[in-house]
Amino acid sequence: MKANIVLLPGDGVGPEIVAEAVKALKAVATRFGHDFEMTEYPVGGAAHDLCGDCLPDATLAACKAADAVLLGAVGGPKWDALPPEKRPERRALLTLRSELGLFANLRPAKVWDALKGASPLKDEIVARGIDVLIVRELTGGAYFGEKGRSADRTSAYDVTPYSAHEIARVARIAFDAARRRHGRAVAPQPGRAVAPRPPKVTSVDKANVLETSRLWRETVTALHAAEYADVELEHMYVDNAAMQLVRDPARFDVILTENMFGDILSDEASQITGSIGMLPSASLGAAKGGLYEPIHGSAPDIAGKGIANPLATILSAALMLRHAFGLAAEADAVEQAVSDVLASGVRTADIASPSGASSAASTSEMGDAIQAALSGL
Ligand SMILES: NC(=O)c1ccc[n+]([C@@H]2O[C@H](COP(=O)([O-])OP(=O)(O)OC[C@H]3O[C@@H](n4cnc5c(N)ncnc54)[C@H](O)[C@@H]3O)[C@@H](O)[C@H]2O)c1
């Protein structure tokens, strides 16, 4: 297939890690016979230094026209003194999300076999397998509702509005994602055979207290009955979900939830995997494509040293292949390359054991190893 990908390297380690994802995408294109046209545009502090705007018009226009966007990271101390509305995080990231209509955020949290020791959870919990996809509603609820203070400023409110339309469109993304993950095997448990896992969505709400949650539950249930009866659906209160994520994460496949609950649960889920340099994300909307980025920031403390872990960005490129282009085999190949390279012992400093940190691979050595694995070298 032919696809037009906009690259937004941004600030700090952004250019270093995006360069490695480009190597992986080129290897995929060669191996599977695709034509990916990749064009870089300035964003964030780097764009501000160029033209005084963290999201230049040409960058926004290119993102709107692209089949998908791959972002490194934006921000850093150099731009912290800018007025809030001009800072990279707000001007570039929030404007991109709203202009591209990105209403669903997908964050997979997975413990890779070779990195099991990095999880803060007990070995017997990790051994059951952690591979959860959180689908968070991104443009509704309390973060976007009316807010205010009383005249004497001693009371405040944040309205949490949700429409059935907003709930159904993000629920559809979660059900579709669960179907795509269908067939995956659960990690073997001692004494038990590997059982195939049916696609499952856990819809998280607080329907015992909140009216928006009751609408959420009704809407998800109706959509499930009408269009997704092949997917298992369960409902869970958010307080229980927070507990189950650390007690028994293997019980989850896809978690679907509203904006604020998702904000909290997705951070919790990412932490149980133990390594920020490994975690990708996708933001999807009504339009084609979507925006793909690692969950970490621009890491100014290690920028320019060539030691950043590029795997979160490479795995974000895998999410792009799967969600923007429907290229499941290609996405699987990238994830398999990551798994194989980790299993062969290649580590960047952030995921190396203390004894191996001095001989850790550089950013580009890790990117080269993934490229070689994808190319069958
Ligand atoms: N989406 C984004 O672009 C985004 C997200 C979060 C933060 N930020 C911005 O990034 C800047 C730095 O923020 P921060 O320091 O709070 O968070 P950060 O995620 O950049 O860094 C936190 C810690 O994790 C390490 N780290 C992050 N990514 C890594 C990688 N790929 N490999 C190895 N180590 C890695 C860093 O070295 C640092 O010690 C700030 O300006 C912040 O606003 C941007």
Features:
single chain; 377 residues; alpha/beta; Isopropylmalate Dehydrogenase; 10-stranded mixed β-sheet; 41% helix; 18% strand; binds nicotinamide-adenine-dinucleotide
Can you offer a commentary on this structure?
The chain has 377 residues and is α/β, with parallel strands linked by helices. It folds into two domains: 1-111 and 280-377, Isopropylmalate Dehydrogenase; 120-273, Isopropylmalate Dehydrogenase, CATH 3.40.718.10. The chain has twelve helices and twelve strands. It has a ten-stranded mixed β-sheet, sandwiched between helices. A two-stranded antiparallel sheet has the order 6-7. β6 and β7 (156-158) form a beta hairpin. Bound molecules: nicotinamide-adenine-dinucleotide (NAD). Nicotinamide-adenine-dinucleotide binds next to α4. Nicotinamide-adenine-dinucleotide is lined by residues 13, 17, 73-76, 89, 93, 276-277, 293, 296-302, 308-309, 312, 350.
Please summarize what this structure is:
The protein contains twelve helices and twelve strands. The chain is of the alpha/beta class and 377 residues long.
